[in-house]
Amino acid sequence: MALPKSAKTLIIGAGIHGLSTAYHLALNLKARGKGDGRDILIIDKTAIAAGASGIACGVVRNNYFQPAMRELMAQCVEVWESDMEAYSYHPVGYMQISPESMHADVGTIAKQQKEIGYESTFIEGEKDSMDYMKDLFHDWQAQGITSVLHEKKGGYSNNTKAMYGLAGKAEAEGVRIMTGVEVTGFDRDNGSEAVRAVKTSKGDIQCDQLVVAPGPWAKQMWDMLGLQKTVSIKGADGKMHDDIPMWIYWSLQEGTLGVDPEMQKTNDGKMPPVIHVDSDAPLYSDHDGSLITDEMWGIYYKPDFHFNGIQGGAAPFAIDTPPDDVAVDPYGVDSPDFVVGEDFAHMWVSALAHCQKRFEGQMVHYNSEPSGGIGSFTPDSFPVFDRFVDNVYMIADSNHGYKMIGVGKLVAQELCGETSALLEPFRFSRYAEGKLHPVSSSPFPWS
Q1: Under CATH, which architecture does the 1-90+155-241+381-447 domain have?
Q2: Alpha-carbon gap, residue 63 to 149, rounded angstroms
Q3: Which residues in 238-365 belong to E strands, given as ranges?
Q4: Would you give the DSSP letter of residue 41?
Q5: Any idea of the CA torsion for 164, 167, 168, 171, to the nearest 10 degrees?
Q6: Fewer CB atoms < 10 Å away: N or C end of the chain?
Q7: Distance between CA 60 and CA 405 in Å, rounded?
Q8: How many CB atoms lie within 10 A of CB 111?
Q9: Mean pLDDT in consecutive groups of 10 residues from the start of the chain, 447 residues
Q10: What is the pTM of this model?
């Protein structure tokens, strides 16, 4: 297919956000009698799901301390449920298992889930929490757990299958997807801030409307658009904090234990919920008994036939390299710098054994193939969904991306002139206005 010279709506990025926006925009245009999918072009410098969407663990959850995130995630779960086959979605549920230091936070989440009609069960107290977990897994043995929040909705999706399923739905509506097309710059209209055309490795593409959905490449696109490198943030103290870097990178820690996925079935023989454990109990090596950490730690895991094992991860860590010097490419498993190593495998498998006896002595089965990647994070680690330079809509997800399939549906509505209340808390202006999201006690920056 020859590169089109123009498109009414041009979308950069063939990951979860770009594909979802294109598909839902095509439906909106058709329903409103204002066009259809043939008015939409997606470009990606590599391939469908070549970025974070292609290596994502695929967990879908509502469990967030921030009310705005919970409401948005409830909407996203509805989209996952709308076509579970195409999205390769498994609605097995999700469990947040926590120590006393997180008890109050998780209690708040449970209360507000009830208020928005999101079904969950909240268990409190060390004995009741242990009993509840042993009713699911006879070998549960994690100590110091004083609350369990069991979301009955949510679960996980097989990432690559879901992305190609979503791409197929978009193409069925007439959307064009062109890969191997790298963005090299933007042409601005002399009379305004609008982007008149996108410069690419294959030629220029004129556009009326531009959607930038770049995932880990958010900073590169942000810089190409000439947007500010630092921000001023009004803190909880009422004071302005200036010169805060707009972007920071975090290294994502995920991997697979190469055992039979059915090893993790529940006591009644069913596939289990996704398990997320945060703990302040000392974590000891399942290999030699040495102390790994006596500080707060967290892991998540699930059986996954797509990964052919028990797949999951641990809390990421901030990359100290100045953002301008971080090499995002090559991305994911091809990166020489940002793949998980032996330290992660040792910690994660030991943590699995800390939680369930069935994982003791399983370190030898850890899949040593490269895994992991990096994420591009905003100053508060929450997304920015907003318009910039007149006709540019930026979807900067701060690594919440894959589970947020519903964002594309809401962005599509906004592109058609219908403002979304669910996206309002994620505008760029929140930094200067001090309308920040509350911070939880979780060791994960995105919870």
Answers
A1: 3-Layer(bba) Sandwich (3.50)
A2: 9
A3: 240-245, 248-257, 274-279, 283-284, 291-293, 297-304, 309-318
A4: E
A5: -160
A6: N
A7: 10
A8: 10
A9: 92 97 98 97 95 86 91 96 96 97 95 94 98 98 97 93 97 98 92 90 97 96 95 93 94 90 97 97 96 96 90 88 90 69 91 98 86 85 94 92 95 97 97 91 69
A10: 0.94
